[in-house]
Amino acid sequence: MQRPTWGADVTRTAVLALIGAQGPVSRAELARSLKVSAALVTQLTRQLIADNLLEELDVVPSAGGRPGRLLGLTSSAGNAIGVKVVADHVALVEVQIDGSVVRSATEQFDAFAPDALDRLSRIVGAFLAGSTRPLLGVGVGLPGNVDVASQGVVDSSQLRWQQYPVGQTLRRDHGLPVLVENNVNALTMAERLYGEGRHHDSFLVVTLGTGIGGGLVADGAVVRGASGAAGQIGHVPVIPGGPACQCGNAGCLEALIGEQALVATARERGLRVGGGIDDLRALADEGDAAARAVFQEAGELLGRTLAGVVNVLDPEIVIFLGEGLAAWRHWAPGFEPAFRSGLLPQLRGIGISIESWQDDRWAQGAASLVLATPFDTDGRSGEQGRLVRQRLVDQSLAGGRP
Amino acid sequence: MQRPTWGADVTRTAVLALIGAQGPVSRAELARSLKVSAALVTQLTRQLIADNLLEELDVVPSAGGRPGRLLGLTSSAGNAIGVKVVADHVALVEVQIDGSVVRSATEQFDAFAPDALDRLSRIVGAFLAGSTRPLLGVGVGLPGNVDVASQGVVDSSQLRWQQYPVGQTLRRDHGLPVLVENNVNALTMAERLYGEGRHHDSFLVVTLGTGIGGGLVADGAVVRGASGAAGQIGHVPVIPGGPACQCGNAGCLEALIGEQALVATARERGLRVGGGIDDLRALADEGDAAARAVFQEAGELLGRTLAGVVNVLDPEIVIFLGEGLAAWRHWAPGFEPAFRSGLLPQLRGIGISIESWQDDRWAQGAASLVLATPFDTDGRSGEQGRLVRQRLVDQSLAGGRP
DNA sequence: ACCCCTTTGTTTAGGTCTTAAGGAACCATA
DNA sequence: TATGGTTCCTTAAGACCTAAACAAAGGGGT
Do residues A310 and A347 lie in contact, with contact meaning Cβ atoms separated by under 8 Å? Predict the structure, then answer.
């Protein structure tokens, strides 16, 4: 029952992530930022220093009391690969142990092809070959349901995959630990480790892209739900008997304000949006009132629905992510009033964070599966976690002192 | 970060609760039921036996292997008082350490009176005087926001209380530990400990009564949310610009299918429901089609809204509780299809549990605040928890061997 | 009788985290 | 100079939990 959620042992990874993101930091600062006792930081950093992942650096000028000793990353231990799979392409990144991206690529892909899995494996293999550093493992994020991250058997209606042994195949072909997860869960994990979510113990992640996704963090841990499907904000029923949704139901939020729905609405209203959502955004950018109205109405719907979710979950903050944010300024006029007015009065002050979006973010999320794993000592990520750990130790011993 | 949620240490209490509810049980059975390692059960039961709360009984006939030793409650250690406060009355119960109710009472009350708090205290005092057993403490459940259970400062629009020092007052007057919580959270805790929720690690509690309430349990712990307000299912916005709700917003679920709303709707349709919801239910029971339609439509709305919540949270099961369940068979025809059809296909098999309702259930929930507390050794319930613990130890030492 | 199997329960070692208490290093001011 | 206040960090003790190994107590088949 102790921290039974998916989410590995966030704390040690969070130490590395914080140092990676903010540069060298003192132990005291670490304890404050991570909302963890100073004693624990002492213990963890001792281990990390012993493992050659951290090193003591300068002393900080002192601010009234004893000066702190800065801790910095050695960051020579190994990188991780993140893979994002969607229907028509694959994005890959190589990240350092602190979560920063050092290399990325995008490859065409056809998920519907009969040999999709083999092709995916080849694409991953080619990317792996380009790495100059020792690798800890591969994280894969994709739209769909994953049994358990450590196994990696995938069901995805979006990719038309049924019981695809993604994890097994990649492991076999490349001899690296492989962790597979739903893409939004992976992204939520990354957000918790490296993003705005670092500063909050419970938050809601909303992704605006082709679809509408959501991730939940409560008490510091990613909530997977009973069947690993928590967070499906896009499939909250909004309009009874509304347009059909991919999921098989009708009137889901996603069926109303997903990319396709927006474009369809625009087309109905006589707008020229042959090129899809980008055209619609371009029109709105140019000041086209009808285009703006499409976004604004979508914003209202999103705001009202999200208000309900927030009323139920009472998170500290809501974080928006995704490609769709490029048009956020057109959503906002509809979203803000609808959202605030739907919130319970005492929640009305809740913060929202629109994170700037880089396209490799999804893949970075996948990589964080690997980066979170080495420290999951309870084996919640199973055999694959043990392997990642093994590789990490090997390499920090080998690469540390010559 | 270790089990940071509200919710005390469920495990030890759960041991007592299970034994209380199911009678004597072997250690191995405990471990299985509570999904906890056998080693832990050994440790916990050793402590509980040492504390004179449990005792070893007979041996079970054996089923192929070594026979188990049954553990039973001594249940002489002390009782707890649960108090449920609503606008016009107060319900009180005395429960044993296993959660079973031994005594109950209901008193008239006027929460709007200027001296409401003193009167509440007198009511509690009179009930306390009727107890023949040593008491561990008092738990209070009420509709509204509570800062922290251990402090007990209450804001409640429903009771028109602002910053009422409920905990402090009762403590001062009666010299007992007092824990105060939102009523639905308290009920959810009781459900987790003594109800259907024992068997599930994540579930949703929905209360149907004057209002519509909700409680969340994820990974075994009650989710309070960032500001202690999680679970407000009743205030999910459903119809934009709909009828005004107590909370200040418009079109909330509760404003549409709360008791008052149902009665109002019935009245609009010419039904004679002067006596309120009971009349409406009586009509429906008699077969009045219009009355049934009111319930059925409400069921549809509830079903659709709840489907959204379930899609987002992915709980194992949904548990319904509350006075309103008396009319459930009239809700069900509307609820079931709307609920199932709003669920994501893979969640469609989710279980729902309609728990039979006893009116002292709310108060029992409040009492479970106290019963959960003695084992909250990390002091999450603060000073009051320490006091309850103290009393428990004192009495098990004093009352144990004569 | 004997041996193997199953189930129950305990021990041990270990990991994660916390509070409490105190030592270490620096500042300011009397 | 020394005295106290800060801030940083560590030590020590202990709660909660688990996996693994083992001990204990019964079957049943040969």
Answer: yes
Q: Is A401 a residue whose pLDDT tops 60?
A: no
B221–A contact, CB cutoff 8 A? yes
Distance CA(B172)–CA(B151), nearest Å, equals 13
Q: Which residues of B49-74 are buried (b: 16+ CB within 10 A; e: fewer)?
A: eebbbbeeeeeeeeeeeeebebbebb
Identify which of B237, B309, B316 has the shortest CB distance to residue A304: B237
Residue A4 resides in a domain? no
Query: pLDDT tens, A207-235?
Result: 998 889 999 988 777 887 887 788 999 99
Q: Which chain B residues touch A1 with a CB distance below 8 Å? A: 3, 10-11, 35-36, 219-220
Length of chain B: 402
User: What is the rounded average pLDDT of the residues A106-131?
Assistant: 95
Residues spanned by the domain of B135: 79-188+360-400
Q: What is the mean pLDDT of residues B299-304?
A: 96
Q: d(Cα A253, Cα B25) in Å, to the nearest integer? A: 48
Contact flag, residue A50 CB and nucleic strand D, below 7 A = no
Residue A9 has what pLDDT?
Answer: 61
Spatial contact of A137 and A177, defined as CB atoms under 8 Å apart: yes
CA distance to A173, A213, B230, B269, per residue, from B163 (Å): 64, 39, 20, 41
Asked if strand D comes closer than 7 Å to A42 Cβ, the answer is yes
Give the C-alpha separation, B176 to B190, whole Å.
21
- What's the gap between Cα B343 and its chain centre? 26
Rounded Cα–Cα distance for residues B217 and B224 (Å): 9
Q: Which nucleotides of C are covered by protein (CB under 7 A)?
A: 5-13, 15-21, 23-27
User: Taking Cα atoms as reference points, which of B295, B366, B303, B362 lies closest to residue B326?
Assistant: B295
Residue with the larger pLDDT of the pair A191 and A328: A328
Number of domains in chain B: 3
Which chain A residues are within 8 Å of B145, Cβ to Cβ? Answer: 346
Instruction: Pick the closest to residue A373 from A167, A189, A101 (CA basis).
Output: A189
- Does residue B388 contact residue B78 with C-beta atoms inside 8 Å? no
DSSP B244: B
| CA A128 and chain centroid, separation | 21
| B371/B98 Cα distance (integer angstroms) | 8
Q: Which nucleotide's C1' sits nearest to the alpha carbon of A62?
A: C26
Domain boundary among B54, B73, B92: B73
CATH number for the domain including B343?
Answer: 3.30.420.40
Nearest residue to D24 via alpha carbon and C1': B66
